[in-house]
Amino acid sequence: MFKTILVPVDLADPAHYADALETAGLFARQYGATVRLVTVLPVMPSVVADFVPADAHSKIADDAQAQLNGILADLDLGSGKGEAEVREGPVYHEILEDAEEHGADLIVMGSHRPAMATYLLGSNAARIVRHAPCSVMVLRGRD
User: What is the average per-residue pLDDT within 40-69?
Assistant: First the structure.
């Protein structure tokens, strides 16, 4: 049923993606699917970049990749496979682009309970659900 399952990972909030990892692992074991972990780094404004050491960005990206690889190593995928990628840009755009590029059949992601601001402005999860090229499973946190 599923061949490629995309899991967006916010490395700063492990509780936010824990259920998504568990669910993706379950599907991967059941269907022999590939699980793609993707984290998105924000674009550093040029005003800030001028005051940051030249190699800081690559160190941040390398650290994020190492964290994703560690999460992937701890994920029991059974007969499934795992991939991890660090992207840069707006979260929803990069997740949608990755899903399109890698032919994701399913995006499994966590979401916080909506606040009033998200009803007016929209959240990354809402944008991903509206525009994804595949099915999206949104798992609510236990607030």
Answer: 86
Distance between CA atoms of 39 and 75, rounded to whole angstroms?
16
Quick one: tokens of 108? 């499994």
Report the mean per-residue pLDDT for the chain.
88
CA distance 45 to 58: 15
* Cβ atoms < 10 Å from Cβ of 76: 10
Does the domain formed by 4-122+132-138 have CATH 3.40.50.620?
yes
The structure tokens listed for 93 are 């755009």
| Residue-level pLDDT at 27 | 94
Distances (CA, A) of 126 to 3, 98, 113: 24, 17, 12
Q: CB-based contacts of 24: which residues, under 8 Å, 6+ apart?
A: 5, 7, 35, 75, 108
Rounded Cα distance between 5 and 34, Å, is 6
Query: Which CA distances in Å does 92 have to 28, 123, 128?
Result: 23, 9, 6
Q: How far apart are the first and last CA of the chain?
A: 31
Residue 26 predicted with pLDDT over 90: yes
